[in-house]
Amino acid sequence: MKLRKATKIIIVLVLLIVSVYLSTEPKYAPPSAVTPPFITHFPTFIAHKSIISNKSHPNTIDAIEEVLMSEVPGIEVDVRLSKDGIPFIYHGNTLEEETNGVGIPEDQVWTDLEKLTYKNTTNSKIMTLESLLTTVGSKKFIFLDIKTYKIFNQKLALAITALINKYQLQETIFVESFNPFLLLSVRLTAPDILIMYDFTTSSEAPSKDIEPQFKKIPWLLKQPFIQKQIRRIIRPDLLSPRFNINEDMLKSIISNGYPVVASNIDTPQAAQGLLDIGVKGIQTNKSMSIIQRVKATSQATYDAGGSGVIPSKIIHVQTVEDIVEAVQLARSTQKKITIAGLRHSMGGHTLLDNSIQLDTLGFKKVTYNPETMTVNIEPGATWKRVQKVLDRYGRSVKVMQGDNIFTVGGTISINIHGWQTNSAPLASTVVSLKVLTADGKIHHLHRDDHSLLFRAVLGGYGLFGLIINVELETAPNTALKFKAEFIDPNDFTQAYEKYVTQNPKAELAYGRLCVDKHHLFKHAGLYWYEQTHADKLEDLKFKPPITDNRGILRASETYNWGKKLRWSAEKTYVQRMLHSNAISRNNAMNTDIQILWPIYRTHKDVLQEFLVPKQNLNAFVASLKKHILDFKINILHVTIREVKQDHISLLPYAKTDMFGLLCAFSQGRTPDEEKQMRQFTQKVIDDLLQLNGVFFLPYRLHYTKEQLLTAYPEIKEWVRLKKTLDSENMFDSEFFQYVSKDED
User: Fold this and answer.
1) Do both 447 and 546 map to the same domain?
2) Of 102, 112, 294, 444, whose CA is between 20 and 30 Å from 306?
């Protein structure tokens, strides 16, 4: 009897815990394989049905071209699937609502649909989704509102994702729907495509014109409890509450980290109120009138360190002509220029109040040259995009970060090093550059010319000019086998020499330190990939959703048992990898950093990289450990990578062969916690400099001016050259103002 009673109590407790858990709002944790919209620039205003005036019929090519000519950054259109499988743009539920046709749109084949004309127009036709994508490209953000009367429509999901992949528009398209099954299908089919979950809690349609659409939403999908479970399952990148918007509900969702787009907002007052409480985007039929009246604070831009500014203007450059015009505008208005990609730097390198910010994400063409085996890349392209192109030719990136979501222009501007063995920083693989300088001139620079400007731009933090194109060496896309050894951290240098440096087959390598506070830095793992034979290699493929991995990492942010669990999980993962088949170099390098994105907004991640000569690694690790314990710093992970000496850039960090320790810390957002992190970093740097080490400059500006001059004695001459080549200091940033302060 006692056992039966205890069992009942346990069951009741479990049910109670589960019910409480399911009733809470899930935290924002999207599994998509691209940068989430709260990190990158996001369109504050979106033209609903592509409407910005009454001159053109909604959802037509004429309306689209109007938006393209305007400053409205986003377009929303309605997508349906024809009977013969062609995605097309149309809003109405029947053809007679808007055209000279009759019937259900989805019941018609495309050859019949394309003959129809919209009412009250001279000759406006229904357009295909493919026509829309070729017309807009990445010039604007596109929201595809999927219309389907089927609950399960895998055919539509496949058709849409195929077109997005064909035109490589994963970074600027959002697929939205009330239908969670369709969104889940898109998520599973293409995890690198962003999705937006539309929902409503209204019991009645707020107006007659949307009543037909409202009635199609099942009662169950209007229930808040069900919507929470949908968010848990599909992990949307964006949320869009529709119709009657409850402000308390909005605040709750936003406080849990979700980027929110409010729809059908047609007054400046309503738009301003929503932006003030944290809504990211406004989908509206009156975007032009609203955009002119809503305060410019809605256009604030941030970097990954949490710094934010309000630019005078954000220009999304697509072509060289766009860049030339932007420089002319800056000169005529006496504005500074900042250059931004995905803005993963943390020290204001892409930011400056009242500047003209050039957003390069739409400037992203990638072309491989089989004759020279080099690749030409525009600055807004991500490494993932480059990898997709190279994979078709059996080639691979020669040097890049451990993660592929960064832009190439930003990467060159900080001159990163990677985890490719026996490699100097990225500058060592640059064959040529095309750069636009502050005087408006375009320079064609080649490494064989040994030009000062060539060396200055590499690791120049966007201060010597804007990179228009870069030509990089590539490497063969070899077959690789994963290897690993768990070792005492004191033996890391010797183990690296044995398993990597003296191993001619080793191509990729890195190490990790255990961050469990009870065993801090007492255990280490050394992981590498070495060449092997494989009859056939898989094409480049996307990684599966990483929600579970992120959950483990974020548990380690709050609890030490999470750190223990993570180290245990890493060992388990390594054992599985040791028994896995060979993979291509491209797939080994096809990783992204979203596992690191924080879930809770009460804390932020702080990155610092400390580089130390190999022979001084153990002394520095001991020093770092001491300061972490003394300051009670919450460290999330430490990755160790080798970098060879840099003989090219004018501001080198790799002054000899070194190990770089990339450290991620979790920090609260209060002034006291910021002060503590600054003091901790300066103490670490003091010891680092005693060991002939340096700190990498793309991260937080926590170092003192004295520490900067000690680590980078070249910086005085570097600043003088910058002021010589750009006498009006047109290319500027918070970072440059900090490092050049008091310099003549």
Assistant:
1) no
2) 294
| Alpha-carbon torsion angle 565, 569, 571, 573, nearest 10 | -170
Q: Which of 477, 497, 524 is the last residue of a domain?
A: 477
Question: Is residue 478 within 8 Å of residue 583, measured between CB atoms?
Answer: no
Q: Which two tokens stand for residue 451?
A: 């030009």
Same domain, yes or no, for 415 and 562?
no
Instruction: Report the C-alpha gap between 665 and 677 in whole angstroms.
Output: 9
What is the reported pTM? 0.85
Measure CA 593 to chain center.
Answer: 8
Residue 640 to residue 506: CA distance in whole angstroms: 16
In a shared domain, residues 118 and 185: yes
244, 270, 299 - which closes a domain:
299
* In a domain? residue 260: yes
The residues, ordered by sequence, that sit 6+ positions from 585 with a Cβ below 8 Å of its Cβ are 396, 475, 476, 477, 478, 479, 480, 507, 508, 529
* Contact status, residue 46 vs residue 281, Cβ threshold 8 Å: yes
Which residue from 142, 130, 80 is spatially nearest to 107, judged by alpha carbons? 80
Burial 379-407 (b: 16+ CB within 10 A, else e): bbbbbbbbbbbbbeeebbbbbbbbbbbbb
The separation between the first and the last C-alpha atoms of the chain, rounded to the nearest angstrom, is 87
| Residue 635 token pair | 């460290």
Tokens of 278: 């944290």
651, burial (CB in 10 Å: exposed 0-12, middle 13-18, buried 19+): buried
**Do residues 636 and 684 both lie within one domain?**
yes
Pairing of strands 442-446, 173-177: unpaired
State the average pLDDT for the chain.
89
Q: Is residue 569 part of a domain?
A: yes
Query: Which CATH number does the domain housing residue 110 bear?
Result: 3.20.20.190
Contacts for 579 with CB less than 8 Å, ≥ 6 apart:
none
The domain containing residue 139 runs over which residues?
A: 23-299
User: Per the domain annotation, does 651 fall within a domain?
Assistant: yes
Q: Is 205 exposed, middle or buried (0-12, 13-18, 19+ CB in 10 A)?
A: middle
Q: Which value, in Å, is the radius of gyration of the alpha carbons in the chain?
A: 27
314-325 b/e with 16+ CB inside 10 Å = b? bbbbbebebbbe
Q: Single out the residue of 13, 19, 24, 27 nearest to residue 551, CA to CA.
A: 27
Q: Are residues 311 and 438 in the same domain?
A: yes
Task: With beta carbons less than 8 A apart as the criterion, state whether 405 and 34 touch.
Answer: yes
CATH assignment of the domain containing 356: 3.30.465.10
Residues 444 and 573 in one domain: no
Structural domain contains residue 18? no
Tally of domains in the chain: 3
56 and 173 in one domain? yes
Per the listing, tokens 């017309």 go with: 135
**pLDDT digits 0-9 by tens, 270-303:** 899 888 888 889 999 988 888 888 865 556 787 8
Q: What is the pLDDT of residues 623-662, one digit of tens each?
A: 999 999 999 999 998 999 999 999 999 999 999 999 999 9
Alpha carbon 442 to chain centroid, angstroms: 29
> In this structure, are 598 and 690 located in the same domain?
yes
Residue 494 burial (CB count, 10 A) = 11
539: domain CATH number is: 3.30.70.2520
Give residue 547's pLDDT: 43
User: Which residues lie across from 511 on neighbouring strands?
Assistant: 526, 640
